[in-house]
Specification:
Elements lengths: L1 E8 L1 H11 L13 E10 L2 E8 L8 E8 L2 E5 L9 E7 L2 E9 L2
Parallel strand pairs: 1-7
Antiparallel strand pairs: 2-3, 3-4, 4-5, 6-7
């Protein structure tokens, strides 16, 4: 069974976050490894996903950190994405699949 949700973000938010994600090293506007932005999507039955943009440091640029929680406990974390906030983030836990798609708000 797959639970799919769509996270609509304003175009200017996506543009700004993608600009930060394009950097080769952490942004001077934020402390190393600090949270830049977070979006939480409730999936029901105690499941939720955090989509976070985190600043990098001198050795790596900012990245998207997608984490699945159940009743507030982290249960799965995807590999960091360094390219864009837009797109699909898919989690597979046993027989249960979760999909969050980040798109521009119309």
């Amino acid at each position: 069974m797959t639970i799919k949700k769509i996270l609509h973000l304003k175009e200017e938010i996506i543009t700004e976050l993608n600009k930060v994600l394009s950097l080769d090293k952490g942004s001077a506007d934020y402390a190393d490894d600090s949270l830049i932005s977070r979006f939480t999507v409730a999936l029901g039955e105690g499941f939720e996903v955090d989509i976070k943009v985190v600043n990098g440091d001198e050795s790596a640029g900012p990245y998207v950190d997608a984490v699945l929680f159940q009743h507030g406990q982290e249960i799965y974390c995807l590999e960091p994405s360094f390219e864009t906030i837009e797109g699909e983030f898919n989690f597979e836990i046993g027989e249960q699949d979760f999909s969050i798609e980040v798109i521009k708000e119309l």
